[in-house]
Specification:
Blueprint: E1 17-20, H1 30-45, E2 49-52, H2 64-77, H3 100-112, E3 116-119, H4 123-136, E4 162-165, E5 172-177, E6 181-186, E7 194-196, H5 204-214, E8 219-223, H6 230-240, E9 246-250, E10 253-254, H7 272-277, H8 282-291, H9 304-310, E11 321-322, H10 325-338, H11 341-354, H12 364-374, H13 380-391, H14 402-405, H15 413-425, H16 431-444, H17 449-461, H18 469-476, H19 478-494
Helix pairs in contact: 1-9, 5-6, 8-10, 11-12, 11-13, 12-13, 15-19, 16-18, 17-18, 17-19
Bound molecules: glutamic acid.
Length: about 500
């Protein structure tokens, strides 16, 4: 394994090195990604490095599939990593299961300096001590194992054992968190926690410490569920005489009922790739996530460049933020409409293909149709829904549901007839050229435009919502409009 001299005593001007250290045990959680985003923004703002490290020591729960999902999610969001899987880097490998020798080496150093020891205590011994503790205190929790091996050196290293940290029992361990401010835990609350398991793999706190130290991480960001782990990691930095990194713990993302956002949270996708598949744009998701827990005055909408320039830890709140679907839709819709039409045409084609419509991204009809349709769209799926009727064969256009079908009835047949007549006669076939004769007829007949427009809209799109009627007719084109109106007219006449 490639090794590097440990970085002690970093100089204060050393560049920012942050990391995201997910465990590959499932989908990538959208709340976890917010932590990654804040780190990434911080690195980009300071021209520092963003490291991706895979914490896969939980062999029973880690899978290659989950690693692939993490990488794919990060790539889709555009949160690129300077070091990590696939890109490599000076501290490779970036998978904890491939760094075993390094953990063993650091455990040996700690044993040699008297800060750790081998422990041969059996499960039964630990259990017996626990029971005695709980009986003596009427079932009270808070048991801490006191290993008889803390001060013994006569065990046999060839026999199965763990390595434990010799945790200080007096005083307290604290730090100034970039989000939580001053935090401290009494040392008497710690036990001699395990560094290396019997199988040679490190426990989370030790693996994390060794990696953050040897990778030269200057700021550790993670969820506040890890606050209790930080004193253990700090004790390790102190034991080896290394400079501590800074820490920023982020409050949890909550669902509408105030519970931690989870798979069970109603109506919220927690897996990043659900947003990709749901037609969201990375820019929309990242803007929303950034604002979920961070504020910059009352600004709501940010481009990625603006987020990089404006993000700071001062703006990160200490309380959990609630997921707000409406706000997400608002932010996402804004970013969708901010894209130029050619870009949206490229992005929407896979969603059109999913609906059975194959159209080239540079098809002029597609590109020209984006501008009016995007005004009413939030996601790429909305956009695809608003576009697909343009490219379907005329014979496939039928009312999409009962509500739409109700507009095609004998009473509306005369409207369809009149519009069909105008459509046949209009040349060039533009929205303005169509508007004149249809509007003056509506006026002369003392009708309402909406009453005439709905059956025509259903006739040419199959649905009750679309951009302006004349624009839609122009986009659909003369020939297709005639075919669709003729077909709808038949339906209207035949309807009960
Ligand atoms: N693997 C840990 C997790 O996914 C990382 C925690 C940390 O960033 O230190 O929760």
């Amino acid at each position: 394994m490639r090794k590097r001299a440990p970085t002690f005593n970093r100089s204060p001007i050393m560049s920012v090195r942050v990391r995201f250290a997910p465990s590959p045990t499932g989908y990538l959680h959208i709340g976890g990604v917010r932590t990654a985003l804040y780190s990434w923004l911080w690195a980009r703002k300071h021209g520092g490095e963003f490291v991706l490290r895979i914490e896969d020591t939980d062999a029973a729960r880690s899978t290659q599939e989950a690693v692939d999902v993490i990488l794919e999610s990060m790539r889709w969001l555009g949160l690129d990593w300077d070091e990590g899987p696939e890109v490599g880097g000076p501290h490779a490998p970036y998978f904890q299961t491939e760094r075993e020798a390094l953990y063993a080496e650091w455990a040996e150093k700690l044993i040699a300096s008297g800060h750790a020891y081998r422990c041969w205590a059996t499960k039964e011994e630990i259990q017996a001590q626990r029971e005695a503790y709980e009986q003596g205190r009427g079932g009270k929790k808070g048991f801490k194992f006191r290993s008889p091996w803390r001060d013994r050196t006569d065990g046999d290293p060839s026999q199965p054992h763990v390595v434990r940290f010799k945790a200080p029992r007096e005083g307290k361990t604290g730090w100034t968190d970039l989000v939580y401010g001053d935090v401290a835990y009494p040392n008497k609350e710690q036990q001699d926690f395990v560094l290396i398991r019997e199988n040679g793999l490190p426990l989370y706190n030790f693996g994390c410490f060794v990696d953050d130290l040897t990778m030269g991480i200057t700021l550790v960001t993670r969820g506040d569920d890890h606050l209790v782990n930080t004193p253990m990691q700090l004790m390790l930095y102190d034991a080896v005489g290394a400079e501590r990194p800074q820490f920023a713990h982020l409050p949890m993302v909550l669902d509408a009922s105030g519970k931690k956002l989870s798979k069970r949270s109603p109506g919220v996708g927690v897996a990043v790739l659900d947003y990709r598949d749901g037609g969201y744009l990375p820019a929309g998701v990242l803007n929303y996530l950034a604002r979920l827990g961070w504020s910059h005055g009352d600004e709501e909408l940010f481009t990625l460049e603006e987020l990089i320039a404006k993000f700071d830890w001062k703006g990160v709140g200490k309380t959990g933020s609630r997921w707000d679907k409406k706000k997400l839709a608002h932010v996402q819709g804004h970013h969708l409409r901010s894209q130029d039409d050619a870009t949206l045409a490229k992005l929407v084609t896979p969603f059109l293909a999913e609906r059975g419509v194959e159209v080239a991204a540079d098809d002029a009809r597609l590109v020209n149709a984006i501008a009016p349709v995007k005004l009413r769209a939030t996601t790429l799926i909305d956009l695809a829904e608003g576009l697909d009727y343009l490219f379907r064969p005329d014979a496939e256009i039928a009312p999409e549901n009962d509500k739409a079908a109700k507009h095609l009835k004998p009473a509306t047949a005369p409207y369809l007839e009149k519009v069909l007549e105008v459509v046949r006669a209009t040349e060039p076939f533009t929205a303005e050229a169509l508007a004149g004769p249809i509007e003056s007829w509506v006026e002369a007949e003392e009708l309402k435009m909406g009453k005439v427009a709905q059956p025509v809209r259903v006739a040419i799109t199959g649905r009750t919502r679309s951009p302006g009627l004349f624009e839609t007719l122009e986009l659909v084109g003369k020939e297709a409009s005639i075919a669709r109106l003729e077909q709808a007219l038949e339906r209207a006449r035949a309807a009960e």
